[in-house]
């Protein structure tokens, strides 16, 4: 066991009744990041030693939510960076239900723009992958999820019915959309259904063990004014109007309402590609 010096400790943040601690071994000079509700607090109260290497989960914990762990580093900067990374992981999925404990895995997302198609891929360790696509044909959400594993997480870590774990999946998707600036024409909001979540507001569909889907609820989202299009696609309003007059859009893609041109969003994707904002 090592004798350690506590350098920085976060109490009750980001998780109530847990400590996120940065410390240093006085003999070797190595640094560590320790977290959890159990021994990081005990360590600061009694000056206990900590394991030489690797991760540590106390054997006396009865609550399944009570995860503790430690990781060693050569420098203070590396230890601080690990703590910041853990907080980002925590923020990505509420209560860390999708990624129990602080492992090297975390919920990650990638985005890809190809011509008139944009795709966001969300990967949840062990639980599977969601694919959100927007193109001239519309909005598509597909998933390859291990629902049995998700339910097992729900049974262990969620305060409520196991299927409420899908709220964490929805929250992770919504955060990825917002953080990446993904060009989704609307805001992701949801509520619990009998077996998962259903989208509300701008979208319909949902995520549960039977299906994964997302579609526009309000047809007004399917059309935009030339001014709105100019802001989203980074093209001058006058240029869009000129394209309309030149017949770059099909007759069923544009119409005039009270002196204002309305253009189908899919047509703008087809002509200008992925929105710039």
UniProtKB/TrEMBL annotation:
Domain (Helix-turn-helix): residue spans on this chain: 220-274
A matching Pfam family: HTH_59
Xref: InterPro entries: HTH_59_Firmicutes_type (IPR045403)
Domain of life: Bacteria
Protein name, per record: Regulatory protein MerR
Annotated source species: Desulfofundulus kuznetsovii (strain DSM 6115 / VKM B-1805 / 17)
């Amino acid at each position: 066991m090592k004798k350690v010096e506590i350098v920085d400790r976060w109490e009750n943040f980001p998780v109530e009744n847990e400590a996120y601690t940065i410390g240093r071994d006085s003999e070797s000079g190595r640094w560590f990041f320790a977290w959890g509700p159990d021994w990081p607090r005990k360590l600061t109260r009694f000056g206990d030693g900590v394991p030489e290497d690797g991760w540590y989960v106390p054997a006396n914990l009865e609550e399944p939510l009570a995860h503790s762990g430690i990781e060693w580093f050569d420098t203070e900067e590396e230890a601080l960076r690990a703590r910041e990374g853990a907080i980002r992981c925590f923020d990505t999925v509420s209560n860390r239900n999708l990624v129990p404990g602080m492992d090297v895995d975390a919920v990650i997302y990638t985005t890809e723009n190809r011509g008139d198609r944009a795709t966001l891929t969300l990967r949840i360790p062990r639980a599977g992958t969601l694919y959100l696509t927007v193109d001239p044909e519309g909005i598509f959400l597909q998933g390859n999820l291990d629902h049995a594993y998700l339910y097992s997480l729900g049974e262990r870590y969620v305060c409520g019915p196991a299927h409420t774990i899908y709220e964490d999946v929805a929250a992770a998707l919504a955060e990825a959309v917002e953080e990446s600036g993904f060009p989704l024409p609307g805001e992701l909001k949801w509520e619990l259904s009998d077996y998962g979540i259903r989208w509300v507001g701008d979208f319909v569909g949902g995520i549960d063990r039977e299906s994964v889907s997302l579609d526009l609820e309000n047809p007004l989202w399917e059309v935009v004014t030339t001014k709105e299009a100019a802001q989203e696609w980074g093209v001058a309003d006058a240029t869009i109007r000129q394209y309309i007059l030149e017949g770059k859009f099909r007759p069923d893609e544009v119409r005039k309402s009270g002196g204002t041109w309305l253009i189908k969003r899919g047509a703008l994707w087809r002509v200008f590609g992925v929105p710039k904002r």
